[in-house]
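Let's practice the habit of predicting before peeking. Look at the sequence and jot down your guess about where helices and strands might fall. Then scroll down.
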Amino acid sequence: MNKFTGFIMNAKDIVCNLVKKYETRNPYNLVKELGIILQYGEDMGNVRGFYLYANRIKLICLGNDMPEPMERFVLAHEIGHCIMHKQSSAPFLQSTLITTDKYELEANKFAAELIIDDDELKEYSYFTIDQWSMYYGLPREIIELKLRNSKVD
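Done guessing? Here is the structure:
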């Protein structure tokens, strides 16, 4: 169930509703709008970030040693958990980019939908996956995930 509609939605629909409601695709702005506490941690090892829900408090913690594009993606991924898996808490590990875990895959889809705009994909439809990867500063796997879930003409 999704709090925005009251019925089960996919990541793309959830992102569309969020973007429409808050008029932003920026995960840092969404954190503020959604009342999520954002903190940074040092020496988190292979944990890039995590979402924690306790006592009605929503918290996202990000490692402070990521390049900005990856940090944006990890933040969007954790927002995905906050919205789609409110009661679950799990770390974003290096291996989370290539996963078969249902919740992690849904959070990756949410993040890809939020970060990668369909309008840009349409406008620059001649870009290769590698060019998109360089443009967004994200691994190929994330671009491929987005393209598999998009209907770009």
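How did you do? DSSP finds seven helices and four strands in the chain.
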